Fold this sequence. Notes:
GO biological process, one term: vacuolar protein processing
Number of helices: 5
Protein name: DUF788-domain-containing protein
Keywords: Endoplasmic reticulum, Membrane, Transmembrane, Transmembrane helix
Number of domains: 1
Distance between the termini: 93 Å
Strand content: under 5%
Largest sheet: 2 strands, antiparallel
Mean pLDDT: 83
Transmembrane segments: 27-46, 52-73, 106-127
Structural class: mainly alpha
Radius of gyration: 30 Å
Order of helices and strands: HHEEHHH
Strand order of the largest sheet: 1-2
InterPro entries: SND2/TMEM208 (IPR008506)
Helix content: 55-70%
Amino acid sequence: MGALCWDLQAKNADKKLAAQNSKTLQWLTRAFFGVNSVYVFVQFVLGYGSVAWSTTIAYTVTFAISLVIYWQLMSMGQTRHNSQGELVSGGEDLSMEGLTSYMFDILYITWLVHLGSLVSSYFWYLYWLIPGFFVYKVGGYAVPLLRGLFGSSSNAQPAPAQSNSAKKREKRQNKPKYSRH
């Protein structure tokens, strides 16, 4: 009976996850095609004669990156059904932290850059946020490791601050003592 109850709870959780992923994937698809359609129409149809090669290359590279991430998120969030049509898996949880969250962040920055670059080409510089954030995150782990490998050989830590009475006591103890002979 306990296994049956657990199985029902697991199926309900999968159904809930499948519904949540379905909404997320629908929104992701609309946003992906919407942003890229607007960019292509405005930049390449309306402004065809004034498009620089650098802009075309930048868009192609960033579009390819966002397309790979879009495909990855779509495959992660897809539900899986057995031959009878029953839900086997609701897919991966697309709202989880970590790499999935970073993939969404890259998509958001890419879309912001694409739409913003229609107004000013300086928006392309925002794309440097992605490697900058990577360096910031990795640096938090790498710097202490590198300090340990290449830093000072002593592991001496700075002495904690002493109170005035402790300083006086230490001074008295270190004071040379004279004895009478």
